[in-house]
Amino acid sequence: MTATDPVVPAGGGALAEPVERVGRGWTAALSLANGAIWVGWFGPLQILLASQAEHFAPGTGMSKETVLAWVTGAGAVVSLAANPFFGALSDRTTARWGRRTPWIVAGSAGGALSLLLLAGAGGVWTMAAGWCLVQLTLNAAFAAITAAVPDRVPRLQRGSVGGWLGAAQILGVVGGTGLAAAAGGTGAGYAACAVFTLAGVLPYVLRHPDLRLPASARAPWAWRSFLASFRLSPRRHPDLAWAWLTRFLINLSNALVLLYLLYYLRDRLHHHDPEEGVLVLTAVNAVTLLATVVVGGVWSDRVGRRKPFVIWSGVLMAVATAALAGWQTWPGAIVASAVLGIGFGVFTSVDFALMTDVLPEALDRGKDLGVINIANALPQVAAPALAAPIVTHLGGYRVLYLVSAAIGLAGAVLVRRIRGVE
Fold this sequence. Notes:
The protein is mainly alpha-helical. Helix content is 75%, strand content 0%.
Protein backbone atom coordinates (compact mmCIF):
# COMPACT_ATOMS: atom_id res chain seq x y z
CA MET A 1 0.00 0.00 0.00
CA THR A 2 1.31 3.47 -0.84
CA ALA A 3 1.04 6.53 1.37
CA THR A 4 -2.00 7.81 -0.53
CA ASP A 5 -4.04 4.68 -1.19
CA PRO A 6 -7.72 5.69 -0.68
CA VAL A 7 -9.32 2.26 -0.70
CA VAL A 8 -9.04 -0.25 2.13
CA PRO A 9 -8.52 -3.89 1.19
CA ALA A 10 -10.90 -6.55 2.43
CA GLY A 11 -8.80 -7.28 5.48
CA GLY A 12 -9.45 -3.86 6.99
CA GLY A 13 -6.21 -2.01 6.08
CA ALA A 14 -7.52 1.17 7.71
CA LEU A 15 -6.98 -0.61 11.02
CA ALA A 16 -3.54 -2.01 10.25
CA GLU A 17 -0.38 -0.64 11.80
CA PRO A 18 1.13 1.57 9.06
CA VAL A 19 4.53 0.53 7.72
CA GLU A 20 5.03 2.74 4.63
CA ARG A 21 6.57 6.13 5.33
CA VAL A 22 4.40 9.08 4.30
CA GLY A 23 5.75 11.58 1.80
CA ARG A 24 6.56 15.25 2.19
CA GLY A 25 3.46 16.34 0.29
CA TRP A 26 1.13 14.45 2.63
CA THR A 27 2.91 15.81 5.71
CA ALA A 28 2.89 19.37 4.38
CA ALA A 29 -0.82 19.28 3.50
CA LEU A 30 -1.85 17.81 6.86
CA SER A 31 0.37 20.33 8.65
CA LEU A 32 -1.26 23.21 6.78
CA ALA A 33 -4.71 21.91 7.72
CA ASN A 34 -3.62 21.65 11.35
CA GLY A 35 -2.22 25.17 11.31
CA ALA A 36 -5.45 26.52 9.83
CA ILE A 37 -7.44 25.10 12.74
CA TRP A 38 -5.08 26.80 15.20
CA VAL A 39 -5.54 30.11 13.38
CA GLY A 40 -9.26 29.75 14.06
CA TRP A 41 -8.58 29.15 17.74
CA PHE A 42 -5.78 31.53 18.61
CA GLY A 43 -6.74 34.65 16.71
CA PRO A 44 -9.69 34.88 19.11
CA LEU A 45 -7.80 33.59 22.16
CA GLN A 46 -4.81 35.91 21.87
CA ILE A 47 -6.51 39.15 20.81
CA LEU A 48 -10.16 39.17 19.79
CA LEU A 49 -11.86 37.60 22.82
CA ALA A 50 -9.83 39.77 25.18
CA SER A 51 -10.87 42.88 23.26
CA GLN A 52 -14.53 41.87 23.31
CA ALA A 53 -14.34 41.05 27.03
CA GLU A 54 -12.93 44.50 27.74
CA HIS A 55 -15.70 46.09 25.65
CA PHE A 56 -18.57 44.16 27.28
CA ALA A 57 -17.29 44.09 30.88
CA PRO A 58 -18.46 47.57 32.01
CA GLY A 59 -22.10 46.62 31.51
CA THR A 60 -21.85 43.35 33.44
CA GLY A 61 -20.44 44.39 36.81
CA MET A 62 -17.52 41.99 36.23
CA SER A 63 -13.88 42.69 35.49
CA LYS A 64 -12.53 42.06 32.01
CA GLU A 65 -10.45 39.19 33.44
CA THR A 66 -13.56 37.51 34.84
CA VAL A 67 -15.53 37.93 31.61
CA LEU A 68 -12.69 36.44 29.59
CA ALA A 69 -12.33 33.60 32.09
CA TRP A 70 -16.03 32.70 31.88
CA VAL A 71 -16.15 32.80 28.09
CA THR A 72 -12.97 30.81 27.49
CA GLY A 73 -13.92 28.38 30.25
CA ALA A 74 -17.34 27.72 28.67
CA GLY A 75 -15.71 27.09 25.30
CA ALA A 76 -13.19 24.74 26.85
CA VAL A 77 -16.01 22.70 28.45
CA VAL A 78 -17.50 22.23 24.98
CA SER A 79 -14.08 21.24 23.68
CA LEU A 80 -13.73 18.61 26.39
CA ALA A 81 -16.70 16.70 25.03
CA ALA A 82 -16.42 17.57 21.34
CA ASN A 83 -12.95 16.24 20.64
CA PRO A 84 -13.42 12.64 21.80
CA PHE A 85 -17.04 12.59 20.57
CA PHE A 86 -16.14 13.54 17.00
CA GLY A 87 -13.04 11.38 17.14
CA ALA A 88 -15.26 8.40 17.96
CA LEU A 89 -17.67 9.28 15.15
CA SER A 90 -14.80 9.47 12.67
CA ASP A 91 -13.64 6.01 13.84
CA ARG A 92 -17.02 4.64 12.76
CA THR A 93 -17.34 6.58 9.49
CA THR A 94 -17.50 4.42 6.34
CA ALA A 95 -18.06 7.20 3.78
CA ARG A 96 -16.52 6.89 0.33
CA TRP A 97 -14.28 9.87 1.18
CA GLY A 98 -12.80 7.97 4.14
CA ARG A 99 -13.01 8.04 7.93
CA ARG A 100 -11.46 11.43 8.63
CA THR A 101 -11.99 13.69 5.58
CA PRO A 102 -15.76 14.27 6.02
CA TRP A 103 -15.18 15.57 9.54
CA ILE A 104 -12.27 17.78 8.50
CA VAL A 105 -14.45 19.42 5.86
CA ALA A 106 -17.57 19.77 8.01
CA GLY A 107 -15.66 20.94 11.07
CA SER A 108 -13.61 23.61 9.30
CA ALA A 109 -16.62 24.95 7.38
CA GLY A 110 -18.66 25.07 10.57
CA GLY A 111 -15.77 26.74 12.38
CA ALA A 112 -15.48 29.47 9.75
CA LEU A 113 -19.21 30.18 9.99
CA SER A 114 -19.05 30.21 13.80
CA LEU A 115 -16.21 32.74 13.76
CA LEU A 116 -18.34 35.03 11.62
CA LEU A 117 -21.24 34.66 14.06
CA LEU A 118 -18.90 35.45 16.95
CA ALA A 119 -17.88 38.66 15.21
CA GLY A 120 -21.46 39.90 15.51
CA ALA A 121 -21.81 39.14 19.24
CA GLY A 122 -23.74 41.87 21.05
CA GLY A 123 -22.95 40.94 24.64
CA VAL A 124 -21.29 38.46 26.94
CA TRP A 125 -23.90 35.72 26.43
CA THR A 126 -23.81 35.82 22.64
CA MET A 127 -20.03 36.04 22.81
CA ALA A 128 -19.91 32.90 24.95
CA ALA A 129 -22.38 31.08 22.65
CA GLY A 130 -20.33 31.98 19.57
CA TRP A 131 -17.09 30.80 21.14
CA CYS A 132 -18.72 27.52 22.17
CA LEU A 133 -19.80 26.97 18.55
CA VAL A 134 -16.25 27.65 17.39
CA GLN A 135 -14.92 25.07 19.84
CA LEU A 136 -17.55 22.52 18.86
CA THR A 137 -16.92 22.70 15.12
CA LEU A 138 -13.15 23.15 15.04
CA ASN A 139 -12.70 20.25 17.44
CA ALA A 140 -14.51 18.02 14.96
CA ALA A 141 -11.89 18.90 12.36
CA PHE A 142 -8.98 18.72 14.79
CA ALA A 143 -9.95 15.27 16.08
CA ALA A 144 -9.93 13.91 12.53
CA ILE A 145 -6.64 15.60 11.61
CA THR A 146 -4.94 14.20 14.71
CA ALA A 147 -6.23 10.67 14.09
CA ALA A 148 -4.84 10.69 10.55
CA VAL A 149 -1.32 10.38 11.98
CA PRO A 150 -1.57 6.93 13.64
CA ASP A 151 -3.75 5.87 10.68
CA ARG A 152 -1.02 6.60 8.14
CA VAL A 153 2.38 7.19 9.81
CA PRO A 154 4.68 4.39 11.05
CA ARG A 155 5.89 4.65 14.64
CA LEU A 156 9.46 5.67 13.87
CA GLN A 157 8.31 8.55 11.67
CA ARG A 158 5.80 10.01 14.13
CA GLY A 159 8.29 12.21 15.93
CA SER A 160 9.23 14.04 12.74
CA VAL A 161 5.62 14.26 11.52
CA GLY A 162 4.63 15.44 14.99
CA GLY A 163 7.35 18.06 14.69
CA TRP A 164 5.91 19.43 11.46
CA LEU A 165 2.43 19.43 12.95
CA GLY A 166 3.82 21.28 15.96
CA ALA A 167 5.51 23.81 13.67
CA ALA A 168 2.21 24.34 11.89
CA GLN A 169 0.52 24.74 15.26
CA ILE A 170 2.77 27.58 16.38
CA LEU A 171 2.62 29.20 12.94
CA GLY A 172 -1.15 29.00 13.31
CA VAL A 173 -0.90 30.74 16.68
CA VAL A 174 1.33 33.44 15.20
CA GLY A 175 -0.78 33.72 12.05
CA GLY A 176 -4.01 33.95 13.99
CA THR A 177 -2.54 36.57 16.30
CA GLY A 178 -1.18 38.52 13.35
CA LEU A 179 -4.45 38.39 11.43
CA ALA A 180 -6.38 39.49 14.51
CA ALA A 181 -4.00 42.37 15.26
CA ALA A 182 -3.57 43.60 11.68
CA ALA A 183 -7.13 43.27 10.37
CA GLY A 184 -8.22 46.66 11.65
CA GLY A 185 -11.02 45.72 14.03
CA THR A 186 -12.66 42.84 15.84
CA GLY A 187 -15.09 41.97 13.05
CA ALA A 188 -12.41 42.08 10.38
CA GLY A 189 -10.13 39.97 12.56
CA TYR A 190 -12.73 37.25 12.91
CA ALA A 191 -13.44 37.32 9.17
CA ALA A 192 -9.75 36.96 8.31
CA CYS A 193 -9.38 33.99 10.67
CA ALA A 194 -12.52 32.37 9.23
CA VAL A 195 -11.30 32.59 5.64
CA PHE A 196 -7.87 31.20 6.47
CA THR A 197 -9.32 28.36 8.54
CA LEU A 198 -11.49 27.14 5.68
CA ALA A 199 -8.92 27.65 2.91
CA GLY A 200 -6.11 25.94 4.82
CA VAL A 201 -7.73 22.49 4.89
CA LEU A 202 -8.46 22.35 1.15
CA PRO A 203 -5.06 21.08 -0.09
CA TYR A 204 -5.25 18.06 2.19
CA VAL A 205 -8.85 17.06 1.52
CA LEU A 206 -8.58 17.66 -2.25
CA ARG A 207 -5.19 16.10 -2.96
CA HIS A 208 -4.84 13.24 -0.46
CA PRO A 209 -7.63 10.63 -0.44
CA ASP A 210 -8.33 9.12 2.94
CA LEU A 211 -8.34 5.46 3.96
CA ARG A 212 -11.81 3.93 3.85
CA LEU A 213 -13.20 1.71 6.57
CA PRO A 214 -15.25 -1.29 5.39
CA ALA A 215 -18.78 -1.35 6.77
CA SER A 216 -18.09 -4.87 8.02
CA ALA A 217 -15.43 -3.53 10.40
CA ARG A 218 -17.86 -1.22 12.18
CA ALA A 219 -19.71 -2.57 15.20
CA PRO A 220 -23.53 -2.20 15.28
CA TRP A 221 -24.64 1.14 16.70
CA ALA A 222 -25.77 1.25 20.32
CA TRP A 223 -25.73 4.37 22.48
CA ARG A 224 -24.84 2.46 25.64
CA SER A 225 -21.75 0.80 24.18
CA PHE A 226 -20.78 4.00 22.36
CA LEU A 227 -20.80 6.04 25.57
CA ALA A 228 -19.15 3.26 27.55
CA SER A 229 -16.25 3.23 25.09
CA PHE A 230 -15.07 6.61 26.39
CA ARG A 231 -14.24 5.09 29.79
CA LEU A 232 -10.56 4.16 29.69
CA SER A 233 -9.37 2.32 32.77
CA PRO A 234 -6.09 3.63 34.26
CA ARG A 235 -5.62 0.17 35.74
CA ARG A 236 -5.83 -1.54 32.33
CA HIS A 237 -3.89 1.18 30.51
CA PRO A 238 -1.56 2.81 33.07
CA ASP A 239 0.84 4.21 30.48
CA LEU A 240 -2.01 6.00 28.75
CA ALA A 241 -3.16 7.41 32.10
CA TRP A 242 0.29 8.70 33.06
CA ALA A 243 0.85 10.12 29.59
CA TRP A 244 -2.50 11.91 29.81
CA LEU A 245 -1.70 13.38 33.24
CA THR A 246 1.74 14.66 32.23
CA ARG A 247 0.31 16.33 29.13
CA PHE A 248 -2.47 17.91 31.18
CA LEU A 249 -0.09 19.39 33.76
CA ILE A 250 2.36 20.82 31.24
CA ASN A 251 -0.46 22.25 29.12
CA LEU A 252 -2.09 23.73 32.24
CA SER A 253 1.18 25.47 33.05
CA ASN A 254 1.36 26.85 29.51
CA ALA A 255 -2.30 27.94 29.57
CA LEU A 256 -1.72 29.90 32.79
CA VAL A 257 1.09 31.78 31.05
CA LEU A 258 -0.95 32.63 27.95
CA LEU A 259 -4.36 33.42 29.41
CA TYR A 260 -3.70 36.89 30.81
CA LEU A 261 -0.66 37.78 28.70
CA LEU A 262 -2.35 40.86 27.22
CA TYR A 263 -3.37 42.08 30.66
CA TYR A 264 0.07 41.24 32.14
CA LEU A 265 1.74 43.49 29.59
CA ARG A 266 -0.79 46.25 30.07
CA ASP A 267 -1.36 46.23 33.83
CA ARG A 268 1.91 44.86 35.27
CA LEU A 269 4.62 45.84 32.78
CA HIS A 270 2.77 48.95 31.54
CA HIS A 271 3.83 48.23 27.99
CA HIS A 272 3.06 51.14 25.65
CA ASP A 273 1.24 48.87 23.14
CA PRO A 274 0.19 45.61 24.79
CA GLU A 275 -1.44 44.16 21.66
CA GLU A 276 1.79 44.69 19.73
CA GLY A 277 3.65 43.26 22.72
CA VAL A 278 1.62 40.05 22.57
CA LEU A 279 2.48 39.75 18.90
CA VAL A 280 6.19 40.33 19.56
CA LEU A 281 6.33 37.76 22.36
CA THR A 282 4.38 35.27 20.26
CA ALA A 283 6.81 35.78 17.39
CA VAL A 284 9.87 35.34 19.64
CA ASN A 285 8.33 32.18 21.07
CA ALA A 286 7.58 30.95 17.56
CA VAL A 287 11.13 31.45 16.32
CA THR A 288 12.69 29.38 19.09
CA LEU A 289 9.92 26.79 18.95
CA LEU A 290 10.38 26.36 15.21
CA ALA A 291 14.11 25.94 15.80
CA THR A 292 13.51 22.89 18.01
CA VAL A 293 10.15 21.31 17.17
CA VAL A 294 11.15 19.37 14.06
CA VAL A 295 14.72 18.74 15.24
CA GLY A 296 13.45 17.33 18.52
CA GLY A 297 11.01 15.00 16.77
CA VAL A 298 13.56 13.75 14.24
CA TRP A 299 16.18 13.21 16.97
CA SER A 300 13.67 11.26 19.05
CA ASP A 301 12.85 9.04 16.04
CA ARG A 302 16.51 8.34 15.41
CA VAL A 303 17.39 7.35 18.96
CA GLY A 304 14.07 5.54 19.46
CA ARG A 305 13.37 7.25 22.81
CA ARG A 306 10.66 9.68 23.94
CA LYS A 307 10.72 10.13 27.74
CA PRO A 308 14.05 11.99 28.18
CA PHE A 309 13.00 14.59 25.62
CA VAL A 310 9.64 15.18 27.31
CA ILE A 311 11.16 15.36 30.81
CA TRP A 312 13.88 17.90 30.03
CA SER A 313 11.66 20.05 27.83
CA GLY A 314 9.16 20.24 30.70
CA VAL A 315 11.88 21.24 33.16
CA LEU A 316 13.11 23.97 30.81
CA MET A 317 9.57 25.35 30.43
CA ALA A 318 9.14 25.45 34.21
CA VAL A 319 12.37 27.43 34.59
CA ALA A 320 11.24 29.94 31.96
CA THR A 321 7.83 30.33 33.59
CA ALA A 322 9.44 30.99 36.97
CA ALA A 323 11.50 33.72 35.29
CA LEU A 324 8.27 35.57 34.48
CA ALA A 325 7.61 35.74 38.21
CA GLY A 326 11.07 36.90 39.22
CA TRP A 327 12.05 39.10 36.27
CA GLN A 328 9.01 41.25 35.58
CA THR A 329 10.38 43.52 32.87
CA TRP A 330 9.92 43.67 29.11
CA PRO A 331 13.40 42.16 28.46
CA GLY A 332 12.57 39.44 31.00
CA ALA A 333 9.36 38.63 29.15
CA ILE A 334 11.25 38.35 25.86
CA VAL A 335 13.87 35.97 27.33
CA ALA A 336 11.17 33.85 29.01
CA SER A 337 9.22 33.63 25.76
CA ALA A 338 12.33 32.48 23.91
CA VAL A 339 13.17 29.77 26.46
CA LEU A 340 9.56 28.63 26.63
CA GLY A 341 9.63 28.20 22.87
CA ILE A 342 12.71 25.98 23.02
CA GLY A 343 11.12 23.71 25.61
CA PHE A 344 7.65 23.65 24.11
CA GLY A 345 9.05 22.88 20.66
CA VAL A 346 10.65 19.64 21.81
CA PHE A 347 7.67 18.79 24.02
CA THR A 348 5.13 19.33 21.23
CA SER A 349 6.65 16.91 18.73
CA VAL A 350 7.95 14.21 21.06
CA ASP A 351 4.97 14.13 23.41
CA PHE A 352 2.65 13.73 20.42
CA ALA A 353 4.68 10.73 19.25
CA LEU A 354 4.64 9.32 22.79
CA MET A 355 0.84 9.60 22.88
CA THR A 356 0.39 7.69 19.64
CA ASP A 357 2.75 5.00 20.96
CA VAL A 358 0.49 4.27 23.98
CA LEU A 359 -2.85 4.01 22.09
CA PRO A 360 -4.64 0.78 23.04
CA GLU A 361 -6.70 -0.13 19.92
CA ALA A 362 -6.46 0.67 16.19
CA LEU A 363 -10.26 0.67 15.84
CA ASP A 364 -10.54 3.50 18.40
CA ARG A 365 -7.64 5.74 17.39
CA GLY A 366 -9.79 8.82 16.88
CA LYS A 367 -11.72 8.36 20.11
CA ASP A 368 -8.64 7.57 22.20
CA LEU A 369 -6.72 10.52 20.80
CA GLY A 370 -9.81 12.63 21.53
CA VAL A 371 -9.67 11.50 25.15
CA ILE A 372 -5.96 12.33 25.18
CA ASN A 373 -6.71 15.74 23.65
CA ILE A 374 -8.89 16.49 26.67
CA ALA A 375 -5.51 17.11 28.29
CA ASN A 376 -5.20 20.05 25.87
CA ALA A 377 -8.72 21.39 26.42
CA LEU A 378 -9.20 20.82 30.15
CA PRO A 379 -6.42 23.29 31.04
CA GLN A 380 -8.50 25.94 29.27
CA VAL A 381 -11.22 25.25 31.86
CA ALA A 382 -8.90 24.90 34.83
CA ALA A 383 -6.64 27.85 33.97
CA PRO A 384 -9.31 30.58 34.26
CA ALA A 385 -10.70 29.06 37.45
CA LEU A 386 -7.20 28.97 38.95
CA ALA A 387 -5.78 32.17 37.50
CA ALA A 388 -8.61 34.65 38.15
CA PRO A 389 -8.57 34.41 41.98
CA ILE A 390 -4.76 34.33 42.07
CA VAL A 391 -4.45 37.51 40.00
CA THR A 392 -7.25 39.41 41.74
CA HIS A 393 -6.95 38.22 45.36
CA LEU A 394 -3.93 35.99 46.06
CA GLY A 395 -0.80 37.83 45.03
CA GLY A 396 -1.12 38.84 41.39
CA TYR A 397 1.00 37.80 38.44
CA ARG A 398 4.11 36.89 40.45
CA VAL A 399 2.23 34.18 42.36
CA LEU A 400 0.41 33.09 39.19
CA TYR A 401 3.65 32.33 37.36
CA LEU A 402 5.25 30.60 40.34
CA VAL A 403 2.22 28.30 40.59
CA SER A 404 2.40 27.71 36.85
CA ALA A 405 6.08 26.75 37.06
CA ALA A 406 5.41 24.25 39.88
CA ILE A 407 2.61 22.61 37.90
CA GLY A 408 4.77 22.25 34.80
CA LEU A 409 7.64 20.79 36.79
CA ALA A 410 5.32 18.18 38.30
CA GLY A 411 4.23 17.16 34.80
CA ALA A 412 7.83 16.74 33.68
CA VAL A 413 8.72 14.54 36.65
CA LEU A 414 5.68 12.26 36.26
CA VAL A 415 6.70 11.28 32.71
CA ARG A 416 9.08 8.82 34.41
CA ARG A 417 6.06 6.71 35.49
CA ILE A 418 5.39 5.61 31.89
CA ARG A 419 6.82 2.09 31.48
CA GLY A 420 5.99 0.94 27.95
CA VAL A 421 7.87 3.69 26.11
CA GLU A 422 11.56 4.50 26.47
